Amino acid sequence: MSRDREIETIRLPGLVPYEEAYRLQLSRRNAVEAGQLGNALFVVEHAPVITLGRSSKREHVVATPEQLAAQGVAVVESDRGGDVTYHGPGQLVAYPVLDLGQWRRSIRWYLRTLEEILIRQLRGYGLEAGRAEGYTGVWVAGAKVAAIGVGIHNWVTFHGIALNVNPEMAHFGLIVPCGIGDRPVTSLKQLMDRPPSMAQAMADFEGQFRQYLATWRSE
Length: 219
What we know:
alpha+beta, seven-stranded mixed beta sheet, three-stranded mixed beta sheet
């Protein structure tokens, strides 16, 4: 692998507020753009938060402010792509900060790459994971198990993926997840007799992520 493709993994401990992770992403993104630092992969669990992407509709937050406050769920506007989503404990969130010039300058390629990495991880658990026509993300048996929403600035990526390992599933009822009202959301806990721990899921994602990007060759 070219040294240009080296990726530093940064695991943030505890339940990380969304705004804190975002500030760290922006700082690293700016440093990558300036050639001061290399690629990075942030891996986190968030404190409960609903994020509003660039395409979000406010009516897709179906809970009242009082209900959200009672359950300790914050609401934050985000400059990622996509609609409304939820992050919280028990969910693996990963934010790659990559100079796509080292791989391929294509938003479509990058989205399909993130899906493929997750699909390979879930197939390693014996799950028949795949894509759904017309949607971004990863699905098992018609239910969404991983969401993807990215940002790209000067061909450097930020934002990323969220894989439901064992989150509080009731919190997804506070929103219309990703603006998709007619398809369910699921988790590894619901799909598996023995789901991986969060630490294991993080390690497995990182392993698939590194392997795929290290071996990818441009056409």
